[in-house]
Amino acid sequence: MIRDDKSNPSTGIRCVFSYNGSATAAPLLHVEIATGQPAEPAAAPKATILWVSEACDDTKDGARDDQAWIDFLTEQGYNVDYRMGPAFGNGFWRTLDAAKIEALNAADLVIVSRNMNSGEYNNGNERDQWNSVKTPLILMSPHVARSSHWKWYNSTSIPNGGRLMQPVNAKHAAFTGVTVDEKGQIAAIADARQFQILGVQTVGNGTVIAKDAANGNAWIALWPAGVEFYAGAGQSASGPRVFFGAGTQEVAATATAPAVGRGELNLTDSGKAVFLNVLDLLLQQ
Ligand SMILES: [Ca+2]
Ligand SMILES: [Ca+2]
To answer: How far is the CA of 92 from the centre of ligand 2 (A)?
Structure first.
């Protein structure tokens, strides 16, 4: 019996027939070499990432401001599922129903973009619904993580992040292969545009993975499934959760400067390497 490896399926010509008879009369194994066929088995399909976004186009160029994230992850070979809502700035996931929750739970990973209107994801029992998603989830909008919203950290403070990321533990898998400077810090942000992180240095029952080198504010944090985010939160998640501060703060155009979009990709190659490591970390859970 020959089995194909489902996680690494072969391609090209295969021919198998069954033989029912005595061993001595069994036909010899017949191998045919077909030219022009792929020499290697097809690569295993990469994970499906469900991208949750408001699809705001604050730059008014006719494209979602966080499109570069989709392109970046697609280039890495991921299947990125990015569903449009009725209009720019009115995301598909703004309202939930049973089918949408099923889709969230069926993905390999959910990423909630910085391209957000946080209040629209906290109506009614939406906090419970989002925290109940079993799939690992990365959130890039601190606005959504606040104690007034999904209750991941015990503050509503959302300060701007700096340019230098300080790993809490340099040996953590988030930093494997990532370039650091002589102080062990990572130049993670590509430009001077504003973005926000968590206005706390600790995250209750979660773990801070990286902090802002300038002031110690939490930049990347992880909460395991089933653990109250912080004492008194009254909320836990049904799958692992990571906050990763990235994606620009929107700024209106001025006479001298163009508009900055909401949740534009603002990571350097080093920052992207950390992001991909964190993504791998969650996909292995
Ligand atoms: Ca845009
Ligand atoms: Ca809503």
So the answer is: 10
The closest of 185, 233, 45, 203 to 139, measured between CA atoms, is 203
Asked whether residue 29 is domain-assigned, the answer is no
The answer to whether residue 15 sits within a structural domain is no
CA of 4 to the centre of ligand 1 (A): 44
pTM greater than 0.90: no
Residue 113 structure tokens: 């973009």
15-24, 42-51, 60-69, 262-271 — which is least confidently predicted? 15-24
| Alpha helices per DSSP H over 115-155 | 126-131, 142-145
CA 101 / ligand 2 centre spacing (Å): 13
The pair of structure tokens assigned to 43 is 């690569």
Question: Averaged over 246-273, what is the pLDDT?
Answer: 97
Check which CATH number belongs to the domain holding 95 and give it: 3.40.50.880
Q: Please report whether residue 147 resides in a domain.
A: yes
Where residue 16 falls among pLDDT bands split at 50, 70, 90? Answer: low
Nearest ligand to the CA atom of 55: 1
Whole domain around residue 226: which residue ranges? 48-283
The number of distinct structural domains making up the chain is 1
The ligand minimizing its distance to the Cα of 119 is 2
Evaluate whether residue 76 is within a structural domain: yes
Cα 48 to middle of ligand 2, angstroms: 24
Q: How many C-beta atoms lie closer than 10 Å to residue 10's C-beta?
A: 14
Q: So what's the pLDDT on residue 23?
A: 65
